[in-house]
Amino acid sequence: MEEISPRTKYLIENPGVIIATGHRAGVPAREMDDFRQEVLLKSVRQRDAFDPSKGRMSTYATNFVSKCARQYLKKMSRQRAIVDSELVEKVLEKEQVKEAETAEKD
């Protein structure tokens, strides 16, 4: 079994980093648990390239979470667009049915 990366360990020990960074980026509070899980999963799956000579772990981890937040919000936006287009289609279908029913009555 692989050893946990320093970034993942830091994020697990400091959950406020994910929450605060996600909040600042615009992740809705109702989505925060899902966002946190996604960040930790990405952290485990992606190679950790932290170099202590280039900066602090807190800065490195915060930048990682910020990137995750941008990706998460982009994904949410795409999903919302799909749902919105499906809703528009359903409304249009209902309008067409109403128009057809009205035309039959005339």
CATH topology of the domain at 6-76: Rna Polymerase Sigma Factor, Chain: A
Global Rg = 22 Å
Helix and strand sequence: HHHH
**What kind of assembly state do the chains in view correspond to?**
single chain
User: What is the CATH class designation of the domain at 6-76?
Assistant: Mainly Alpha
In CATH, the architecture of the domain at 6-76 is Orthogonal Bundle
Q: Please estimate the helix content.
A: over 70%
Q: Give the strand content.
A: under 5%
Mean pLDDT: 86
Identify the overall geometry: rod-shaped
Structural class call reads mainly alpha
Total E-strand runs: 0
Q: Segments where pLDDT lies below 50 for 5+ residues?
A: none
Describe the main β-sheet briefly. none
- Termini Cα gap: 74 Å
Q: How many helices does DSSP assign?
A: 4
Summarize the structure.
With 106 residues, the chain is mainly α. The protein has helices at residues 6-13, 15-25, 32-45, 57-105.
How would you summarize the topology of this molecule?
Blueprint: H1 6-13, H2 15-25, H3 32-45, H4 57-105
Structural summary, described in words:
- The protein has a domain at 6-76: Rna Polymerase Sigma Factor, Chain: A.
- It has four helices and no strands.
- The protein has helices spanning 6-13, 15-25, 32-45, 57-105.
- The radius of gyration is 22 Å and the shape is rod-shaped.
- The termini are far apart.
- The mean pLDDT is 86.
